Amino acid sequence: MVFAHKELFWLLAIIPLLVAWYIFKQVRKQTQVTYSTASFLPKTQSLKPILRHVMFGLQMIAIGLLITAMARPQSSTSSQEVSTKGIDIVLAMDISGSMRAKDFDPNRLEAARGLALDFVEGRKTDRIGLVVFAGEAFTQCPLTTDHSVLKNLFQDIEFGMIEDGTAMGSGLATAVNRLNESKAKSKVVILLTDGVNNSGNIPPLTAAEIAETYGIKVYTIGVGTNGKAPMPVQTITGQTVFRKTDVYIDEGTLTQVAEQTGGKYFRATDNESLKKIYNKIDELEKTEIEVKEYRKRKEEFYPYAAASGILLVLSFLVQHTTLKSIV
């Protein structure tokens, strides 16, 4: 409910003034007569004062309803038509054992997952899917606009889901396969890894050629600090310990994959730089939205005006009939 002339509600201030005037008038009318004895007076109680007060109260309500009607209450219904160029995005994420490295807080995978979820949160009109890879690759979530489902499937990612390794080419090829039949005007893969392709049957550059054929742009992100990082290492007893190990990312291949498909390569060395990379990609791949809003309003002052009129007529009739005859 909205009011076309809500400034008229200031007129309601007249009601307490009228009430104060009415009370003052009643006090002045009261008179006191002193008798030596009141035994000779008839013991009768008149309804006239009570009814007069009730009529005054109805008049005040009527004035309030009339002012509300003058403010023109309206009920509104609206609809929104959204047209978008549409972007389909697949996130291809490395979940190999080296993503446990603690050069990111708390580790590479957790940092990448958290920032990817922030990225998804800002892409409300886009279809987004998720591919994970280690020694092989599979689709964790197909393209969807139901981002709540996507977020839940993101949370289900854990180490050991797939045989260890880094099948970068297979991860990219799987992501491309999810997009090859897409009708979106823009198709994007964001490939995140921290190593070198050492598994799978598809070389990364071959997957890049397939992506180029289907008009799919690939942004690649290399995750890992410069120099050495605390990497997980299995001891003879099977325990996992962290030792400072040289970080090596195949930046040459990642750069070639990105350039061949019209994308860009980024290097993330800590949480903050990774966050900036996601923000940069978000700016580069903006969804263009046109919004048309339709609003229809219906006048709702009739009931208020009718109720006010009824109360005023009732008050007038009572004052000129009943109140004149009651003793």
Brief descriptors of the model:
single chain, 11 strands, alpha/beta, Rossmann fold, six-stranded mixed beta sheet, elongated, 327 residues, 2 domains, three-stranded antiparallel beta sheet, 10 helices
Summarize the structure.
The protein has ten helices and eleven strands.
What summary fits the major beta sheet?
6 strands, mixed
Task: Tell me the strand percentage band.
Answer: 25-35%
Number of structural domains: 2
Cα separation of the termini = 46 Å
Tell me the overall shape: elongated
Number of strand segments: 11
Strand order of the largest sheet: 5-4-3-6-7-10
- As a percent range, the share of helical residues equals 40-55%
Task: Specify the CATH homologous superfamily of the largest domain.
Answer: von Willebrand factor, type A domain
CATH topology of the largest domain: Rossmann fold
The structural class is alpha/beta
List the secondary-structure elements in sequence, H or E. EHHEEHEEHHEHEEEHEHEHH
> Which radius of gyration do the C-alpha atoms yield?
38 Å
Mean pLDDT: 86
Q: Low-confidence parts lasting 5 or more residues at pLDDT below 50?
A: none
Give the number of helices: 10
Organism: Salibacter halophilus
Pfam family, one: BatA
Domain VWFA: 88-281
Transmembrane segments: 7-24, 50-71, 301-318
